[in-house]
Amino acid sequence: MKTLQLSPLQKARYEYQPKLPKALQSDLASISVEFGAATEAIADQARLKELFAKTYGKPIASFTSGSNDVSSKLLRVGVILSGGQAPGGHNVIAGIYDGLKKGNPESVLIGFKGGPSGLLEKDYVEITDSFMDEYRNTGGFDMIGSGRTKISTDQQFADSLRVAKELQLNAVVVIGGDDSNTNAALLAEYFIQEGTNIQVIGVPKTIDGDLKNEYIETSFGFDTAVKTYAELIGNIGRDANSAKKYWHFIKLMGRSASHIALECALQTRPNICLISEEIAEKKQTLEQIVNSIADTVVTRSSNGENFGLVLIPEGLIEFIPEMNELIAQLNDLLAKEAAEYEKLSSFEDQTAWVISKLSAASGAVFKELPADIQKQLLMDRDPHGNVQVSRIETEKLLIGMVEKRLVELQKAGSYSGKFSALNHFFGYEGRCAFPSNFDADYCYSLGYTAFLLIAQGLTGYLSSVRNLDKPAAEWQAGGIPLTMMMNMEQRHGSAKPVIRKALVELDGKPFQEFVKHRQIWATQTSYVFPGAIQYYGPAEVCDQPTITLGLERS
Amino acid sequence: MKTLQLSPLQKARYEYQPKLPKALQSDLASISVEFGAATEAIADQARLKELFAKTYGKPIASFTSGSNDVSSKLLRVGVILSGGQAPGGHNVIAGIYDGLKKGNPESVLIGFKGGPSGLLEKDYVEITDSFMDEYRNTGGFDMIGSGRTKISTDQQFADSLRVAKELQLNAVVVIGGDDSNTNAALLAEYFIQEGTNIQVIGVPKTIDGDLKNEYIETSFGFDTAVKTYAELIGNIGRDANSAKKYWHFIKLMGRSASHIALECALQTRPNICLISEEIAEKKQTLEQIVNSIADTVVTRSSNGENFGLVLIPEGLIEFIPEMNELIAQLNDLLAKEAAEYEKLSSFEDQTAWVISKLSAASGAVFKELPADIQKQLLMDRDPHGNVQVSRIETEKLLIGMVEKRLVELQKAGSYSGKFSALNHFFGYEGRCAFPSNFDADYCYSLGYTAFLLIAQGLTGYLSSVRNLDKPAAEWQAGGIPLTMMMNMEQRHGSAKPVIRKALVELDGKPFQEFVKHRQIWATQTSYVFPGAIQYYGPAEVCDQPTITLGLERS
User: Fold this and answer.
1) Which residue in chain A is spatially nearest to B2 when comparing CA positions?
2) Contact between residue A377 and residue A404 where contact means Cβ atoms under 8 Å apart
3) A524 inside 8 A of chain B by CB
4) pLDDT, tens digit, for every residue of A435-493?
5) What residues form the catalytic site here (chains A, B) (predicted)?
6) Which of A319, A459, B8, B522 is least crowded, fewest Cβ atoms below 10 Å from its Cβ?
7) Taking a C-beta distance cutoff of 8 angstroms, is the pair A215, A463 a contact?
8) pLDDT reported for residue B4
9) Residue B10: inside a domain, yes or no?
10) What is the number of structural domains in chain A?
11) What is the DSSP letter of B387?
C-alpha cells in the first residue's frame, strides 16, 4: 500500500515526540547497566535449567545514569512483529531504530516481513529514515506486516540461524505475546548452543493484557485497545440511557483472559460484565449465567429501566465447564463418526442424532441452546473438524436464552417489562488505532530499551519498562530474563516450556474493585462516558494509564 | 440516572466554550434582524399556501450587527428533543438557555421529557444553571430524553396547545429531523389559527444528514457520527492492511439516505462503498451488486491482496428494486394468507409454499437468498406482520452471496484466492459521542439563534446557521421559514405536506468526487486513517467540517 493521502491526525502525530524514562533521555554513553542477583523460573526450575542451559537464571538488568562504552558499536539488528496487531508496534521499531542510529549511524535495522516467516524465508526490508518516519506514532503493523508462523521444527530453527548469519545480524528482536516470547527464549538458547553470538530480545505485546507479571506491568496495546472499546461502550451506554429501550450485549475481544472486559467495566460501569475466570472458578452453568442476567433485567425493569449494558469476554464459552465439555465431546464425536453423521441431511435429524450420542449432561446442555447456536456448533467447523469457538456468537446466544427465560418469568407473573436487545462485537476496531500517548511513549521506550539490551550484549531478555503508573520521566527501563517468567505446561500431550499466561486474578485489586461496585452498577444506572482517546490537551485526559494498571500498582 | 462519576474528558469538556458567529458574540441588544423577500415552497405552492394560511411564505431572517429592543423580554420557552439521538442536542439546549438568561434572568426554559409526549402529557423539568452545566458539550439526549411520538391527531394538537397555555409558554422549540420539523410547521400554524401567539421554532437534527437543502447546509450530529464511524473504519482498514487476510463488510446507519456511507468513504477510501441512491437509479439487481463485489475481490486477489473494506448503507435493501418488490409481496402474502402459512411447520415447507405464491420474479430472488436471510424475512416480522427491514443483516447477506459467487468463479477457473469475511454494524456507537468541536459550536449557535428568533416574535421558522465551511466567527445566523422547504408527498395513501428528504444527489459534488476515485480505491489499497475525534490540539485536526460539507460549499 502506497500511502497517497494522510488524515490530519496522522500528519499531526508524525510530529509527536514520545516521552522516555529519565535515565534514557541523556546521551547514550551516559547510560549504565546494573545487574541484580541470578534469577529462577516461576516453577519447574530444574527442567527449565536443563532446557535453557546457556540462558537460564540470568540477572535482571536495569538502566540508570552512569556510563558505558558499548553504545556506539556498529550493530545489525532484525525485528519481527509476531501475532495479532496491537497499537504501538511501529513505535517499538522507532525506538530500536533511533537508538541504533544514535549509537552509530552505520548501524542497520532490518524488518522481517509478514512475521516470523520473514526470518525463515529471508523476506525483509532495510529500514531507512524516510520509511520509519511514515510510521511514527501510527497504529497497525502494516509497516512490515505480521504473521502467526511459529518457529518450532528443527528445520525452522536451522533456517532462522542461517538467515541471521547470512544477514550478519547481531540480534533479532521479537515483538509478540506470550507464545512469541516463549519462541524468542528458545531461539536465544538455540543461537548460543549453535556457537553464535546472535542475541534475541523480546518485547511484550498483546491487546489482551495477558502477558504480564511482577516484572512486566502491562503488555503494550492494551491501553489503546481498551480506551477505544471504552469509548464505544460509553457512547452506547449514553444512547441506551437516552433512548431507554434497548439492552446492548457487547462482546469484547480477549480469547484467553477477561482483562479487556474487566478494564472496560471499570471505565464505563455497565450493568453487567461477565468475567470468564470467575465463571470457571465458580463452575457456573450457562443456565445460571442466563438466569442471573435475566434477574438483573427484571430488577431494572421494575425500576422502570428497560435498558442496559452487558459486557461479555470473547472467550466466555470455553470457561463455562459444561460448554467446554460439550464442545470437546462434539469435536470427538464428529471426528470419529463423521461418516454416519454425513448421511443425515436435515437439521432435525442431525440434532437428534447428536443428542443421542452425547453424554446425558452434554445432550441436555445442547438441547437447551437456541437453534442458530446449535447450527454453528454443528456446521461451522475448522479444517480439523473442530468447532470454531471464536465464531460462536456468544452475545446472541445469551440474548436468545435471556429472552426465553424472561418469557418463563413473564408467564410466572414475576416480570412484565419489555426486553429488546442488540448485539455488538468490538475487537478489530481497537487493534490498529493510533496508539494513545501512553502506548506511544511506552512502546518507544520498550524499543529504545531493546536497543540498549542489545548494545550490552544480552540475550534471552524481555525489554522491560516499569513504574508505569507514574509520569514517563519516572519510568524504569531494563531487561527481564525470559526464563524467569516460564514454567512447564502440557501442550498437545507433552510438557513444554512456556511463559505463563496472566488471567484475571480473582483476589487481585482490579477484580475486587469491580466486585465492590457491581451490584450497584447492575441496578442503578451508573454509566461513565470516557469519550474518544485524546492525544492533545490536559494531561489528565491524555496521559492516564488504565485503571487496571493503576490498581495493580497501588 | 444520577451521575456518580465523570470521565476526565467529560470534566474537561464542561470547560469548553462553544464558538459563536461574529454577529452573535456581541451584546444581545446589538444584534438586529433583517428580512429578505417573501418565500415560496419548493413545490405544490398553492396547496401549501392553503394548508399554512397563517405561516406560509414568510421571508428569510438574518441576524447582523445592529440593535434591537426585544432581546430582554421575559420569555417562557419549552424545548423538545424528538427522534433518534444526535451529538450536540444538549448544546442546542445550552444555546437557548444562555440566550434566554442573558436576555432576561427571569426567563424560563423548560425541557419536555421523553420527546413530544412530554408536551402532550405535561411531563417537564425546569432547567436550572446547575442542571444545564451537567450537560454542556456532552453527547446523548439523556438530559431530558427523547421520543418518537408524532403530534398528529386533533386531540394531540389540542393537548399541545392546552399544555403550552397552562405553562404560559411564549414558544416551543422542536429539535428534530425532517418529520419532526414538518410537525413543528403544523404546530406553528395551528397555534396561530387557534388565536394564540405561541411560537414554534425548529432545529435541524439528524445524524443521517438527510435534512439539508440550499438553506440548511447540514443537520447537526452528522459531523460527529461520521467522524466516529470513520475512526472505526480507518482502524479496521489498518488492521485489514496489516493482517492481510480478511474482507470486512461494514454496515453503517442511515436508513433513507447514504450520506453517512458516502462521507465515510470520502474520509477512509475503502475498496467498495455501495450508495443506495445509485443502485435505485440504475435499477441494479442483487445479483449485479454481488457480482460486482466479487469481481473486485477477484481483482484484488490477483494482485495478492486477499483483504478489503466494503461499506454498506443500512437502507440498501429497500433501494434494490427487486428486493423492495419481494418484501412488498411477502408483507402482502403473509398478511392475507396467514392462516394457511401458519399450518406449515418446517422451514423447507414454508419456503416452498412462499416461492409458489410469489411472482415468478420475486420467487427467483427469494430462492437465491442464503437460508438465514430467508428465515429473517419469514420470521422476523413486526406486530403488523411486516418484514423488519432494519433487522435484516445486509452485511451477512452480501457476504453469503459473494462467497457463493466466488465458489462459482473458482470452479470456472477464474479465481484462486482466499476469501474470509467479517461483518460489522456501526450506528449506536456514533449517536451519543461527545459532540465534535464543529457540532458543539454549531449546536450552541443553533440554540442561541433559536432564542433570537423567539425574541423577534417569529414562528414557523427553522433555526439556521450557514457558511459552515468557514471558521465559526464567519458563520451566518438566521431563520428559514419551514414552509419554504416543503412539498406535498403521498403518505399512507393521502397527500401530506412534508419537508423533502435530501438523498444523495448523483450529480452532486460529494458523489462525483467518490466516482472519480472509486475504481482506483477498489483495486489499489488507499485507506486513510482518520483516528479518534480530537477536541484539543491543532485546528486542522479538531475543527474541520466534513468532506461532504466542504465539497457542497465549494
Assistant:
1) A526
2) no
3) yes
4) 999 999 999 999 999 999 999 999 999 999 999 999 999 999 999 999 999 999 998 78
5) 208 (proton acceptor)
6) B8
7) no
8) 62
9) no
10) 3
11) B
